[in-house]
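Entry:
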Amino acid sequence: WTPMPGAAVDIGAAGTGQAWVTNKGQNIYRWVNNNWTQMPGAAVRVAVDPSGNAWVVNAGGGIYHWENNNWKQIPGGLTDIGVGGPAPNGTVWGVNAGQEIFRLKGTSWEKMPGAAVRVAVDPAGNAWVVNSGGGIYTWVNNNWVQRPGAAKDVAVCGTGAVYVIGTDNAPYKWNGTNNWDKQPGGPLLNIACDGTGRLYATTPTEQILTAGPATATAPAPAPAPAPTPGAGVKCADENGTCAVTGPSTVMYGKNSTWVTRPANAPGIACNNATFGDPLVGTVKECRIVGGAPAPASAWVKCADENGTCAVTGASSVIYGKNTTWVVRNVTTPSIACNNATFGDPLVGTVKECRAVALPR
């Protein structure tokens, strides 16, 4: 990491070194001719589109796009914004104060499922998000796929490389299959990446840093467990207590949106205060994901990869192998057991589907 001049809190980047920042005073600056040039307006969050123009969110939630050397206000209210995808303007995603997720379609915002506090967008226009519990999710085939680990911020390069700031405030790079590789540097506050793979970051002391495309230098910390065979057993409704018999991992949420927390005997409170709220306005529940014993019949293999998993009534189906799985809830008589339906949680590994009936 190499220090850059100036001080900033948030940073965005795209193209070849086209970076924008916002500082503690909410001033906006653009990197021009190897120096920071102050721009009009005020903002707290910033992202940069493929043409090098900023999208910002101000302290009141107002959304603005830099167009023709002026700020154009966009309807709506957000707390974070991300942009990526094909030039010139890319695809814009955002999250609001209620942790709702939106995607800009033309001149209006389309509400998406799930909940998040941070968002970035890949070259295909699909979002990577971090929720209030640190959970990391990718928008794949019109659904959210959870990735292992936990993070505070996320950035996607124009090259497709994905980086997060972990809960230890260090940078990590997605290895493209099932884990994160720790990178040099830290502690970091916010992270961005341009179209060439060059990283930009701010620190808790408002220092601005940059680094060339990084390579793995240390193993990643153990990832947060994903649903596995013998897991997914409901243990409490929202605001109840999930009882466990020993060290366990408990997930909290509903449908396909969950956050996880470690738990130990005698149990853990199943509420927003403990887990954060991954689905604002939705009644949630807790399920034991791993650790404490679950009934042997909890998950039953129903199909090999590229087969069809037949179910009876409302069920939950997991797809993957060993300890890496993604989950879908099913109400139809069957679901295709393939990458097109679930995304690919383990590239290059032959996978399978397992099912369990959902509680009524």
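The helical segments are 272-275, 339-342.
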